[in-house]
């Protein structure tokens, strides 16, 4: 395989032991302009996923040699390539676990090929946006937390946080609206790039992971508050003991 697969739309690696599904996905995404490679062995899939040759990995949870979660864990130790997980099991825990381990999105089987296409486009759009270098001064600082859009880094006090692409975009969206509630529908559309479904809890899982990483404010209060039945709010500095005139600026 060439070091770089030429495709205007994107280069996709599918890791799934179902040969028929691999053919279906390859044929469908190929017709949409993507360059698609498929593998059915976990070990080979990991090697290719971390090679840097691909823009997206589509990974099945139910693999015979090594389950998809372990494959994802090994990929994440060496690569930040976006991963879309496929799961045939209806258990929400599978989906939550995948997102917690760094998957960018999940899609339950059986799925509509148009839904697959929409998820792929949304993930690649986020990844392409993340690769755009913006001016270093483009940043948001609220209290002891600073988000730098140019370098796509988050600093909380003296600590540099390690966020996924989705978590970074989610935090940026919440910070830009600090002090105001942002609905789940709006977050799903702005951050995940798709329409909201009442049965889709992925945005809540991403918020949970984000909360865990940014922690509480210095006084112990929550930075990100859940507004029941509506959405989420990033609390303004004066709500947790900062002088807003000094620390609450949005640049």
Automatic annotation (TrEMBL):
Major localization listed first in the record, in broad terms: cytoplasm
Regions recorded as binding DNA: 137-236
A GO CC term assigned to this protein in UniProt: protein-DNA complex
One Pfam family here: Response_reg
Cellular localization per UniProt: Cytoplasm
SUPFAM superfamilies referenced in this protein's UniProt entry, alphabetically: C-terminal effector domain of the bipartite response regulators (SSF46894), CheY-like (SSF52172)
Keyword Transcription included in the entry's annotation: yes
Boundaries of every OmpR/PhoB-type domain copy: 137-236
UniProt keyword annotations, A-Z: Cytoplasm, DNA-binding, Phosphoprotein, Transcription, Transcription regulation, Two-component regulatory system
GO molecular function: phosphorelay response regulator activity; transcription cis-regulatory region binding
GO biological processes: regulation of DNA-templated transcription
KW Magnesium (keyword) present: no
Residues modified to 4-aspartylphosphate: 60
Superkingdom to which the source organism belongs: Bacteria
Gene3D superfamilies attached to this UniProt entry: 3.40.50.2300, 6.10.250.690, Winged helix-like DNA-binding domain superfamily/Winged helix DNA-binding domain (1.10.10.10)
Response regulatory domain: residues covered: 11-124
PANTHER family: REGULATOR OF RPOS, TRANSCRIPTIONAL REGULATORY PROTEIN CPXR
Descriptive protein name: Response regulator transcription factor
Organism of origin: Silvibacterium dinghuense
